[in-house]
Automatic annotation (TrEMBL):
Similarity comment: family membership: Belongs to the UPF0235 family.
Any one of the GO CC terms: cytoplasm
Pfam families, sorted: DUF167
Alphabetized SMART domains for the sequence: DUF167
Protein name: UPF0235 protein H0921_06575
Listed InterPro entries: DUF167, YggU-like_sf
Amino acid sequence: MTTLTVHNHPEGVVVEIWVQPRAKQNAFLGIHDGKWRIALTAPAQQGRANAALMAFLAEWLHLRRSQIVLLRGQTHRHKTLLLRDVTENQLRQHLRSLFSEGE
């Protein structure tokens, strides 16, 4: 798996995401060029895919939706998100635990 690019921010960490709307199921597809690739069943219309992305990430990362802020990419597949009150180390540890459970 490619390494996720994470940027520190005064309020938490910033991550880059590539969204594939109108997929068959919501799923984490991996990391490509330092960005999470996430498939969502919601269409990219009227903010539905953005809302689905926030819900998916909140559940997947065990965060409150208020901790996930869309900084850039409201109308694009490429998104920049702030994960509030999360350190880079906490995020990487959580991701390692998620991926080791699936093995």
